[in-house]
């Protein structure tokens, strides 16, 4: 597809497993969509993040048939980028990569995921991917609420990493004889092609991206839970409880109008129907005045909406329809072959 306008907008969504870069025009035409590795500033060295972002930009422009001089702006939704000093170094780096007129804006990836579901309007987003976070945002007042997203050491409850970690703990406790045997043992070992639990030490701790590796085990937890394994069922219920608490705390802090507050669910964990149903039926969630929506477009679309809006353009119904049609069009030629397996979304 070829855009009619000459201006190009770059949009980035970067989490703990992969980074997406979209190149679009002024009318909602997606000209290219490419993927790279993690760009989380808190889990990857800065030099590697810089290289990842620069390479993606060059690749995206090439794939879209666009030139560097056409770039009018870029919006990045990056995990681990809430702090002013982190945003400043990203802007400084990209200013040398892009033309002088390009406007560079950095958000936490939760905010851009929210925009993908609300078209840049007010609401809440709950992400459970490699990590977890819940945010509320009102662009009209610049009100921003953040709950959770404190990283895998002392946060990320209910995330893919949390589910995988608890699954591994259950396997090792059963291996020690501290707890009863669990279906998790065979399912996790099979997923990692290992013969026995003691092999997990090397497989996990020496993995290139340990957090992504652990998060990729969450489907094994869901499988075991659906088959009635007590340990797995408990892990899933705890994850649901933790995520519900994130959403409830955010809802309590966010100023409300008369309508139900949109809650956008995003991240690989919510792509599991078993888990999604458990979450939406959780009593604490049912008690809140929420309009729950699963994100039906890639989170990077939110960055694109922001990039268009910061250029003074309106997000029209026609643009939204164009975007959604392209996202649902199986024939659209996007470069999305890399880093798709076991992606669990984002982390902070």
Automatic annotation (TrEMBL):
Residues 12-282 form the ATPase BadF/BadG/BcrA/BcrD type domain. CDD domains: ASKHA_NBD_eukNAGK-like. Signal peptide: none annotated. Gene3D superfamilies: 3.30.420.40. Transmembrane segments: none annotated. Residues 329-342 have a biased composition (Basic and acidic residues). Residues 329-348 are annotated as: Disordered. It comes from the Bacteria. Keywords: Kinase, Transferase. Pfam families: BcrAD_BadFG. One of its GO terms (molecular function) is kinase activity. This is N-acetylglucosamine kinase. It comes from Paenibacillus radicis (ex Xue et al. 2023).
């Amino acid at each position: 597809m070829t855009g009619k306008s000459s201006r190009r907008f770059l949009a980035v969504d970067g989490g703990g497993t992969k980074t997406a870069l979209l190149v679009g025009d002024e009318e909602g035409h997606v000209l290219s969509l490419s993927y790279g590795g993690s760009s989380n500033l808190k889990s990857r060295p800065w030099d590697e993040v810089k290289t990842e972002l620069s390479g993606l930009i060059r690749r995206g422009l090439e794939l879209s048939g666009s030139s560097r001089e056409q770039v009018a702006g870029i919006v990045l939704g990056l995990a681990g980028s809430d702090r002013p000093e982190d945003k400043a170094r990203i802007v400084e780096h990209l200013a040398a990569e892009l033309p002088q007129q390009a406007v560079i804006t950095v958000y936490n990836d939760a905010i851009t995921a929210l925009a993908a579901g609300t078209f840049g309007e007010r609401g809440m987003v709950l992400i459970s991917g490699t990590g977890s976070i819940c945010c509320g945002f009102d662009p009209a007042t610049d009100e921003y609420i953040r709950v959770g997203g404190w990283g895998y050491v002392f946060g990320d409850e209910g995330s893919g990493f949390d589910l995988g970690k608890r699954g591994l703990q259950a396997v090792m406790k059963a291996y020690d004889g501290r707890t009863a045997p669990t279906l998790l043992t065979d399912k996790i070992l099979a997923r990692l092609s290992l013969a026995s639990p003691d092999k997990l030490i090397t497989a996990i701790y020496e993995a290139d991206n340990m957090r992504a590796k652990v998060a990729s085990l969450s489907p094994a937890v869901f499988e075991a839970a659906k088959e009635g394994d007590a340990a797995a069922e408990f892990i899933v219920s705890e994850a649901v409880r933790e995520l519900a608490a994130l959403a409830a705390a955010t809802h309590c802090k966010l100023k409300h109008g008369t309508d139900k507050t949109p809650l956008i669910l995003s991240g690989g964990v919510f792509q599991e129907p078993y888990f999604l149903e458990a979450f939406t039926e959780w009593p604490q969630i049912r008690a809140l005045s929420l309009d729950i929506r699963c994100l039906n477009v890639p989170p990077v679309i939110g960055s694109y909406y922001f990039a268009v809006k910061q250029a003074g353009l309106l997000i029209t119904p026609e643009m939204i329809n164009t975007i959604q049609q392209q996202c649902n069009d199986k024939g659209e030629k996007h470069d999305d072959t890399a880093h798709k397996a076991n992606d669990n979304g984002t982390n902070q």
